[in-house]
Predict the structure.
Amino acid sequence: MNYKIKSRIWIELDGEEFLGEGKVKLLKAIDNTGSLSKAAKTMKISYKKAWHLLDAVNNSAKKPVTVKSIGGKGGGGTKLTVYGKSLIVNFEEMNEKCWKFLDVQLENIKSL
Amino acid sequence: MNYKIKSRIWIELDGEEFLGEGKVKLLKAIDNTGSLSKAAKTMKISYKKAWHLLDAVNNSAKKPVTVKSIGGKGGGGTKLTVYGKSLIVNFEEMNEKCWKFLDVQLENIKSL
DNA sequence: TTTCGTTATATCCAATCAAATATAGCGATT
DNA sequence: AATCGCTATATTTGATTGGATATAACGAAA
């Protein structure tokens, strides 16, 4: 019996998704590359999709998650704020706790 | 701050989804109506979609989840097995525990 | 043997979603 | 002023999804 239990968590604010796994992954890629377009490339998604994801985050967040610079040396870029970084940490921590919790729950169900 | 944390859980067997919220909802509707087509109507989804969902469950389950009868008085029908009913109960129980767990977790994060 | 409502399945069409492409603006550096 | 890589956005194309529709088989009961 190789049952596995999986989960996805996300955070809603006023009924709309504010943060989920895809957005957290994007924020991490932005943190690593310093640019939205580079983050999209490393994630192998279109710039458009990445831009929409980030746009949704910034539109629903009450504090800025990223700061951008357009033009200039290197063309500009996007960086995470301290708040943005804390979101990543808190989300991933909660996600891992959820997984472990569910693994324990599954152990308790031998009747499957 | 009216953040809400949401989650979806599902069970995989050999890497493919075996049971999720949509499938459980369908199984419950079948249990209530005694027929796949009636279940589809009450859920306001097409028979095709309902059939594919149930087909996926029965193809991946190691024990029969439903028993069907074709023809006869009333045209036939689909009923849950004891195993099928136990799946519903266990899944929903685990789902609710997960929600409560996450609510507690969110309480612990005041930094958001 | 005719009827009935169901299961089962194929086909066509509409809608939705995502990828690809194109274009414009930005501003520090050169 | 020219360049460069990035942000920003619209449009078009392609793929996938799901709905609607049609048809057949089934078997107990009338």
About this structure: Residues 35-38, 47-48, 51, 55, 68-78 of chain A lie near DNA strand D (CB under 10 Å from a C1'). The mean pLDDT of chain A is 91. Chain A touches chain B through 28 residues (CB under 8 Å).
